[in-house]
């Protein structure tokens, strides 16, 4: 054997010994870890094993067999010994029992199917309510997100009041109303279908608006009207609150007082005074805000209050957050 081969053989032997020592160390380390875990959790494992053993010893062995399987059937040899009449009688009794059992099972299955169908098939009214509530959950484009029902903390609200529907009643705050297609259209839809809406429902909707203040800013009794360029506001809400330009009831409209224009500067129409008309177009407000911010950047700090007011107005109307 050459010197080179001897050197290679020697290296192989050294490598084998090193691998063997490493394997033994790993094995001993694993054994040591298992032993330490066993000793650590021994106070917990032993009582549990004893409880399992006691439960298995105490629990009786239960053989569950069907009633039909427990019935003993005679062998063919025994049947041959008996009379032919007994054989026929036995067969008739078995046939009657099987027919009665199958009939009972069929009736029970039919009843279960009918009960299941009644439980899972939604009523027409419930389906209609579900369709409207899904508008809120899915935030559909058909939903009136300004004057309609909203979802907060897994509860439905309309303005400052909670709303729920039970049977043929709609509960809003402490009041209850008769549920109808037209009322649900007014409460949920951004563009209600006018063919469903009657004068009676309009009066009910006006009462709901007064009680919830959903059409007023901050849902406050004295809040300004939340105006919006929409068909619902123009055709339904605004006509209901024509008095005082739709801002306050007639008895709350201020005609005189400190800070108002003199009487000769107030325009008259048909012998009556006009209320002040404030900007409500978001484009005009944004243009005005841009101008005021530019003036403040130029060093004019006299418009901070107006900037704050316009910002709050846009935030309340949902144009900024």
From TrEMBL:
It comes from the Eukaryota. Residues 143-241 form the DUF8207 domain. Pfam families: DUF8207 (PF26634). Residues 98-118 are annotated as: Disordered. This is DUF8207 domain-containing protein. It comes from Trichogramma kaykai. The lineage of its organism: Eukaryota, Metazoa, Ecdysozoa, Arthropoda, Hexapoda.
